Amino acid sequence: MDLKEIQNLIKFVAKSGVSEVKLETEDFKIVIKNTPDIKVTTLPQAEIIPAVTPAPAVAPAPAQAAPKETAQKESEKEDESKYVTINAPIIGTFYRRPAPDKPPFVEVGDKVRPGDVVCLIEAMKLFNEIESEVSGTIVKVLVEDGTPVEYGQALFLVDPD
Fold it and tell me: Rounded to an integer, what is the distance from CA 106 to the centroid of its chain?
């Protein structure tokens, strides 16, 4: 096996997504390991800071509207504190349905029990079924279908039974 053939083999392994290839003959032995440069940082859920998108410039609202909005947001936070979240156990792409032409695993208002599949997360071309760990009713879907999710990111709000 010459250098050109070895280089082609390395390129093939890199494109195929295989993690390791071993080739052994009487004359030589080659081991090619494909380890992607993926750096994963995990943070406890309390330290996850949501990305903030700057809002377009808008004329300031009247002074009376601000206290009402603040009170409304605070009451929503208090309401959401009684809910339990189903979080992403891995980094990947979030999918609500098993296939594009199929209905979502769960909808708002559906009852779930521990072990029920609520979504898929695709990671490294593998589709991982994400199961509920709680029993209750789905109150809110927090992630758009087909968007990337981080480890520990909240996916669903569940009103526990």
Answer: 16
Q: If you average pLDDT over residues 7-34, what whole number do you get?
A: 74
Q: Are 97 and 130 contacting, i.e. CB atoms less than 8 angstroms apart? A: no
> C-alpha dihedral over 70, 75, 80, 82, to 10 degrees?
150
On whether the CB atoms of residues 159 and 123 are closer than 8 A, the answer is no
What is the token pair recorded at 77?
């936070």
**How many domains does the chain fold into?**
2
Query: Is 91 among the domain residues?
Result: yes
Looking up residue 158, the CATH number of its domain turns out to be 2.40.50.100
Domain that holds residue 148: 38-45+82-161
Is 146 part of a structural domain of the chain? yes
Residue 22 pLDDT class (50, 70, 90 cuts): confident
pTM for this entry: 0.52
Q: Tokens 């708002």 — which residue?
A: 108
Residues 25 and 87 in one domain: no
Confirm if 87 and 95 have CB atoms less than 8 A apart. Answer: no
Nearest Cα to 157, choosing from 50, 106, 83?
Answer: 83
Per-residue pLDDT tens over the stretch 96-128: 999 999 999 999 999 999 999 999 999 988 999
Residue with tokens 């968007």, as numbered in its chain: 147
